[in-house]
Amino acid sequence: MNHETLLNRITFNPGVMVGKPTIRGLRITVEQILKALSADISAQELLEDYPELELEDIKASLLYAAELINSEQVIEVA
Questions:
Q1: Where does 3-68 sit in CATH, by number?
Q2: CA distance 23 to 56
Q3: pTM for this one?
């Protein structure tokens, strides 16, 4: 699956989760997925806990975060 296809899984809707990036319009945010992974919850556990979630959704969340970091500009202040 290419990057664009993965990123299309990330949706934004002001009426869902206060407009935070979610997975395919579900009430599962990218933030929830990233925090779970950082808390040592495995992708398999996430898939079991959220049956509507797909492995590609987890990959899309990681790619979305990477793209945000990639677009950041660091400005050094002397």
A1: 1.10.10.10
A2: 10
A3: 0.88
